[in-house]
Amino acid sequence: xxxxxxxxxxxxxxxxxxxxxxxxxxxxxxxxxxxxxxxxxxxxxxxxxxxxxxxxxxxxxxxxxxxxxxxxxxxxxxxxxxxxxxxxxxxxxxxxxxxxxxxxxxxxxxxxxxxxxxxxxxxxxxxxxxxxxxxxxxxxxxxxxxxxxxxxxxxxxxxxxxxxxxxxxxxxxxxxxxxxxxxx
Length: 184
What we know:
Structural class: alpha+beta
Order of helices and strands: HEHHEHEHHEEEH
Largest sheet: 6 strands, antiparallel
Mean pLDDT: 91
Oligomer: single chain
Strand order of the largest sheet: 2-1-3-4-5-6
Helix content: 25-40%
Number of helices: 7
Shape: globular
């Protein structure tokens, strides 16, 4: 058996941040909007904006002192209007002070065989998708660091507990690529 290596500090910080975002978004319940978060290294944020320390939980300040890669997520309140997630992400860009970004989105997924039978017409496809007995509602939170790792969290409505959130670096490769493109 191969030894399990410790994740790099930036991957560990990103995984922690994505888990925190997933938990935060989950507290609002299901059927929520797309949410976008800038990820910034907490130490650097406090260096440039020392007054923010008063607004952070003391445990966050302790973690930030101990972990140079500790990340703070900053939800972006006024997203541009876009017809779909792909267009929204394609229109985002971040200043160099942002170390990464994360997005939360809900999707309906079907087994591959059911997807193949989906009608081509958009309205008919939506009706088919929403009425299909094997559909699964999922919440995806995908984060990536500029020139660094990615991390994903996937929660299904059918298994809506923190213990059953799937996690990994590339569970949703297309969305990981779209998130990364905002950081170029």
